[in-house]
Amino acid sequence: MLARPLYLTGGLAALGLGLVGVALPIMPTVPFLLLAAFCFARSHPEWAQRLYDHPTYGPGLRDWRDRRAISRRAKVSALLAMSAGVGFTWLSVGFPWVWISIAVLTIAGSWIWTRAE
What is the DSSP code string of 62-74? Predict the structure, then answer.
Protein backbone atom coordinates (compact mmCIF):
# COMPACT_ATOMS: atom_id res chain seq x y z
CA MET A 1 0.00 0.00 0.00
CA LEU A 2 2.85 2.40 0.71
CA ALA A 3 4.59 1.80 -2.61
CA ARG A 4 1.97 3.49 -4.79
CA PRO A 5 2.17 6.90 -3.04
CA LEU A 6 5.97 6.71 -3.09
CA TYR A 7 5.99 6.00 -6.82
CA LEU A 8 3.53 8.87 -7.33
CA THR A 9 5.75 11.24 -5.35
CA GLY A 10 8.83 10.11 -7.26
CA GLY A 11 7.02 10.50 -10.56
CA LEU A 12 5.85 14.01 -9.74
CA ALA A 13 9.33 15.02 -8.58
CA ALA A 14 10.92 13.58 -11.73
CA LEU A 15 8.29 15.29 -13.90
CA GLY A 16 9.02 18.59 -12.16
CA LEU A 17 12.75 18.21 -12.76
CA GLY A 18 12.06 17.29 -16.39
CA LEU A 19 9.99 20.44 -16.82
CA VAL A 20 12.85 22.49 -15.37
CA GLY A 21 15.08 20.78 -17.93
CA VAL A 22 12.86 22.06 -20.74
CA ALA A 23 13.75 25.63 -19.76
CA LEU A 24 17.36 25.18 -18.60
CA PRO A 25 19.82 23.89 -21.19
CA ILE A 26 22.20 22.55 -18.56
CA MET A 27 19.51 20.29 -17.07
CA PRO A 28 18.47 17.11 -18.91
CA THR A 29 14.81 16.56 -19.74
CA VAL A 30 14.31 13.08 -21.16
CA PRO A 31 16.05 11.10 -18.36
CA PHE A 32 13.73 12.71 -15.82
CA LEU A 33 10.71 12.04 -18.03
CA LEU A 34 11.81 8.40 -18.33
CA LEU A 35 11.98 8.18 -14.54
CA ALA A 36 8.58 9.86 -14.27
CA ALA A 37 7.05 7.38 -16.75
CA PHE A 38 8.59 4.48 -14.79
CA CYS A 39 7.13 5.76 -11.52
CA PHE A 40 3.75 6.65 -13.03
CA ALA A 41 3.49 3.18 -14.61
CA ARG A 42 3.49 1.82 -11.04
CA SER A 43 1.19 4.43 -9.51
CA HIS A 44 -0.99 5.96 -12.26
CA PRO A 45 -0.54 4.12 -15.58
CA GLU A 46 -2.73 6.63 -17.40
CA TRP A 47 -0.24 9.40 -16.54
CA ALA A 48 2.61 7.29 -17.92
CA GLN A 49 0.61 6.82 -21.12
CA ARG A 50 0.15 10.58 -21.41
CA LEU A 51 3.93 10.98 -21.32
CA TYR A 52 4.36 8.28 -23.99
CA ASP A 53 1.71 10.00 -26.13
CA HIS A 54 3.32 13.45 -25.87
CA PRO A 55 4.00 14.79 -29.37
CA THR A 56 7.51 16.08 -28.60
CA TYR A 57 8.92 13.75 -25.95
CA GLY A 58 6.79 10.67 -26.55
CA PRO A 59 8.76 9.19 -29.48
CA GLY A 60 12.05 9.23 -27.56
CA LEU A 61 10.39 7.79 -24.46
CA ARG A 62 8.76 5.02 -26.50
CA ASP A 63 12.02 4.23 -28.30
CA TRP A 64 13.74 3.76 -24.96
CA ARG A 65 10.86 1.76 -23.47
CA ASP A 66 10.47 -0.54 -26.45
CA ARG A 67 14.01 -0.93 -27.82
CA ARG A 68 16.40 0.75 -25.35
CA ALA A 69 17.30 3.02 -28.27
CA ILE A 70 18.35 6.67 -28.51
CA SER A 71 18.00 8.49 -31.83
CA ARG A 72 21.11 9.82 -33.52
CA ARG A 73 19.77 13.36 -33.21
CA ALA A 74 19.29 12.93 -29.46
CA LYS A 75 22.77 11.45 -29.10
CA VAL A 76 24.38 14.36 -30.94
CA SER A 77 22.31 16.88 -28.96
CA ALA A 78 23.29 15.27 -25.66
CA LEU A 79 26.98 15.18 -26.54
CA LEU A 80 26.92 18.79 -27.74
CA ALA A 81 25.18 19.90 -24.56
CA MET A 82 27.68 18.03 -22.38
CA SER A 83 30.55 19.52 -24.39
CA ALA A 84 29.10 22.98 -23.88
CA GLY A 85 28.94 22.17 -20.18
CA VAL A 86 32.64 21.35 -20.21
CA GLY A 87 33.38 24.68 -21.88
CA PHE A 88 31.16 26.56 -19.46
CA THR A 89 32.81 24.87 -16.48
CA TRP A 90 36.26 25.66 -17.84
CA LEU A 91 35.40 29.32 -18.38
CA SER A 92 33.51 29.81 -15.12
CA VAL A 93 35.39 27.82 -12.46
CA GLY A 94 38.41 26.48 -14.34
CA PHE A 95 40.77 23.81 -13.14
CA PRO A 96 40.54 21.40 -11.35
CA TRP A 97 36.71 21.49 -11.51
CA VAL A 98 36.58 21.10 -15.27
CA TRP A 99 37.84 17.54 -14.82
CA ILE A 100 34.47 16.61 -13.30
CA SER A 101 32.70 17.80 -16.46
CA ILE A 102 35.21 16.01 -18.64
CA ALA A 103 34.66 12.79 -16.67
CA VAL A 104 30.88 13.10 -17.06
CA LEU A 105 31.26 13.75 -20.79
CA THR A 106 33.60 10.79 -21.20
CA ILE A 107 31.61 8.27 -19.16
CA ALA A 108 28.03 9.32 -19.90
CA GLY A 109 28.81 10.33 -23.48
CA SER A 110 30.38 6.97 -24.23
CA TRP A 111 27.39 5.17 -22.76
CA ILE A 112 24.93 7.32 -24.73
CA TRP A 113 26.82 6.92 -28.00
CA THR A 114 26.90 3.11 -27.71
CA ARG A 115 23.09 2.73 -27.35
CA ALA A 116 21.09 1.42 -30.27
CA GLU A 117 19.51 3.90 -32.71
Answer: HHHHHH-B--HHH
- Give the start-to-end residue ranges of the domains of the chain: 3-67, 72-113
CA–CA dist 6, 3 (Å, integer): 5
- Which stretch of DSSP H or E encloses residue 58? helix 58-67
Query: Which whole number is the average pLDDT over 106-111?
Result: 92
The burial of 26, by beta-carbon neighbours within 10 Å (0-12 exposed, 13-18 middle, 19 or more buried), is given as exposed
Select from 28, 112, 104, 25 the least CA-distant residue to 76.
Answer: 112
Residue pair 74/82 in contact (Cβ under 8 Å)? The answer is no
Three-state secondary structure string covering 3-29: HHHHHHHHHHHHHHHHHHHHHCCCCCC
Average pLDDT (38-45) is 96
Helix (H, G, I), strand (E, B) or coil at 101: helix
Give the pLDDT confidence of 53-64 residue by residue, as tens digits.
999 999 999 999
